[in-house]
Amino acid sequence: MFPFFSRSKMSDAPEVNPAPAKTQELHPLDALTGGAFSAATSGERASRIRDWLATQPAPEQLQEVFKELSGRDKGAARAVRERLDEIRRAKGQEAIAAEWAEKAQALLAAPKLNIADALAWQRDAAKAGAPLSREPLSLLKVQMADRVKVIEDLQHRVQVQREAAVLLAQRIEVLSTKPWRDAHAALELLRADVARWQEQAQELTGDASWVSVEARFPPLLDASRTQLLVVWEAFQPAVAQAAAAAEDAAAPLPPVPVWADELRAARGLPTEASAAAAAAVKPARAVRPKVAPEVVEKAAQVVREALATLEKETAEGHGKASAGAAAALRAVLKVHGKHIDNALEQQVHTALVAAGELEGWQRWSADQVREDLVAKAEALLNRPEGQALGGRKMQETLRNLRDQWKQADQGGAPNHALWKKFDEACNAAHKVVEAWLDKIRTEAAEHKAQRLALIEEVKAWAQAHATSTDWKGINRALYQFGDRWREGGHVGEKLFAELQPLWKQAIALAAAPLEAAQKDSLARRHAMIEEATALGAAPMLRIDAVKALQQRWQGEAQSVPLDRKHEQKLWDAFRKPIDEAFNRKSADREKAATELSARDRVVLEASKALEAANATGDAQQIRAAVQALEAALRGQAQAAEAVASAQKAEQSAAAPAEQAVGGDAPAGDAATEGDGAAADGEAAAPAAAPVAPPKPARPVVAVRGDDRPGMKKDAPAAPGRGARPGDRRDGRPGDRDAGRGPRTEGRFGDRNDRGGRMGERPAYEDRGPRLGDVAFRAQRDAMEHAQLALKKLAAQAHGETLTQLLAAWDKRDPAQVPSAQDLGGRVTASVRTAWAQALSAAPQGDASEALLRLEMAAEAPTPAEHIAARRMLQLQLLTRRNDPDPAQTWGQDAARVLASASDAASARRLQNVLKTLLRK
Description:
By secondary structure, this protein is mainly alpha-helical. The chain has 31 helices and no strands.
């Protein structure tokens, strides 16, 4: 058998020697942390880390150890992280402490400390997490508390002084009701007390913290001082006067009634009270007058009305209304109760008892109202999700519930158990209001800080832009500051009253340069308004001056901005005189235009007649009316020309004879009036011949021809009329200096050889005075309407002519062929005769080629089925050079078409081409 143990006694030693383990490398931070990185277990590592942290290592070392250790052992690294967080919080608290220390120092350094600001500093600092238990905040907190205590002590002393002043005044009043000797004995003591009171009041007002006292305390102290001094200053002379009256019987009595009666009694005179009692005579008891029946009836009626109202309200169960009616009935009984009988009085008492029972029932029902109010108060915090009340709404609801509870208490006995439940529910709901109020206070503090920062920003901006001339930019910046101030958030009325003067001062400082520039701009604009008034009042309106003035105004308006309404008023005042001048000018022009002359009336009548003829649609009447209108225009021009010629003849007859003989005599008058003829150089008569009326000038007719210099015209131009009787009529146009002979040399060469249009142009015709605007527009519109009507009638007549011609072709009746006048000038008599002969014979021949030639002559489109034939015909015509063009033989081609048989397609093609050919 094998032994149980196979090893020998020396089996504890290993049989095989193991290889030595590798030596682990130490972490660089292991020595720093006391072997924390080389620790075998997490607990040992955490213990070594805590020991290392007790040595207060630097933050950089903590950060490095945490970075290395957080990846290996988070449990051990937690202590390092907590130490880092603590250091970070300490740094944050130091910054917060510095900030709130600065605020506290600013409050303590201010000459006036508001208690509310001091308490708010402590509360807000605690909310912000500032370490109030550490230096320097702890010391500042103590100083702030001491300062507040001093201010509160001053306010308390003011109240004490006020009570002391009231007590001194009461002592003086009490002494005025006692004998004057007692008052005289207490005079010195009172004088010392009053002096001491004034010293204490002076100490209060002289204290350094007096300016920090609330605003309601200084007036209280001043009022107490004034009241005490008034009483004291009246008491001292009265005591002195009483002492003098006691020594001298002739001295006047003091104004105090008690002392005056005492002195009268000492002098043996009757007192004022005894004299009044002796003078008063007890009147006899008046006999009760008999009451009139009307008074009794009226009293009974008033009581019955009040009684009926009470019974009605009691029957309907109106508790509040019945109580009011009962009170009204009792008031009526006080006035008219002595005039009613016993029966009515019994009814009144019965109704009042019933109303009292109803009121008792109301006390019972008041508990039902209270239970409803308790349920409503408890439901304020149990509303559905999303329907919770806000702070302000919760505050108003709680106020309404408490008011309703007070009204319920007035109608019945109080219920303390329900009140306790109601009050607890309201207090629980009021926490929402408190949180809302805290939020409002925090926001108010933030808004205050924002507004103060804005004020400082405005001041800095004002200093930076003190020399700027960009008035538009300054005005825009001021408006932006104003918008930011208005949108700065809500603050309390008291705080706003403190901030508003600072804001006004800062914004006034910033706006001072702009206001000065606006003042100068206003002066310049008022000067320009006066200048505009002078320009508008001038008899002749200068447009250039008005434009220059408007440009100056626009430049001024663009450089210096003003308030919109004020600037608009100035612009209206500036524009008003200029507009009035332009309106006056327009009115004068319209007045001159509306005044019709004799010629205008004639032209207007002729224009109206032409419009009437246009309305008839008769071409003959329209042409006659057109001729009448042209005659009216031409007749007036000729009359004016005759009058002007007669005046010129008279002037020439009165001229000296020597002026008419010389060859160098100017012919400017004749040239200016458009006569176009020179004076006769050979006639040197001593007296002028009788003046003869000139013949009317022939109308100028434009002709076609070669207008090059030296070329012959197709028709000569009409010669101009002579200026005076006896002048030569056979002179060539342009040869007005024939009496002096032709000029062979000169600046422009030989003008007599020039045959151009400038040399042959006739003299300008004098058209007489100018038509008025109304007459000119009337004749122009009438002529245009007449031309349109004639064109329309011509188109209608042309269409009727083609229809008649096609009807004659269809019926083969030559008698229906339109006349030559209807066909127009394009159709000669021979062509019309050929058409009539073609229609009188029997239809023969093919009209296809003739129709193609007509379409080529009229340049009209050919139907699609005949396009190939038209192209073939065009190629054939190109080979026939000596044949006439289709445009020259369209009359014969039309006759060939009419000689053939009529069909709808051919008739439509013939109508299309004749519509064009007859108009060319």
